[in-house]
Amino acid sequence: GFGHISGAHLNPAVTICAVLTNVVTPIMAVIYVIAQFLGAILGFSLLKILIPDDYFNPGFCMTLPNNLITSLQALAIEIIITTILIVVVCAVWDKRNIDKPDSVPLRFGFVIVAISMVA
């Protein structure tokens, strides 16, 4: 995988955590965040090119909370799942786990699947 190259910076929250824990420098973090936003823009642009216009409705490519929960509940869920992701990221980056790199993709994969299913 690319984790050893990119550090598995899945979103800006992971990158901010990396700066706060001195895993990356602030300058490198800015580069990562710019790359994350450019990747999102590029991904959406490819969708616009490849998918017919009649599939695009006002909510296309938007993550919206279920109508049964309030905005405050949705915010709480986002905070909780982001915290879980950050805890796993910090555990992977912990120097005590440096000798266990073989399971890093599995750890990330299981966490992403779990929080995606819960949220």
TrEMBL record:
One of the record's GO cellular component terms: plasma membrane
Please give the family membership noted in the entry: Belongs to the MIP/aquaporin (TC 1.A.8) family.
Transmembrane domains' residue ranges: 29-51, 71-93
Q: Where in the cell is it found?
A: Membrane
Question: What GO terms are given for molecular function?
Answer: channel activity
In its keyword annotation, does this UniProt entry include Transport? yes
Listed A to Z, the keywords are: Membrane, Transmembrane, Transmembrane helix, Transport
Question: Per UniProt, what is the membrane topology?
Answer: Multi-pass membrane protein
Look up the domain of life of the source: Eukaryota
Where does this protein come from, organism-wise? Answer: Exocentrus adspersus
Against InterPro entries, the record matches this protein to:
Aquaporin-like (IPR023271), Aquaporin_transptr (IPR034294), MIP (IPR000425)
The family database entries (Pfam families) matched by this protein are listed as: MIP
Protein name, UniProt field: Aquaporin
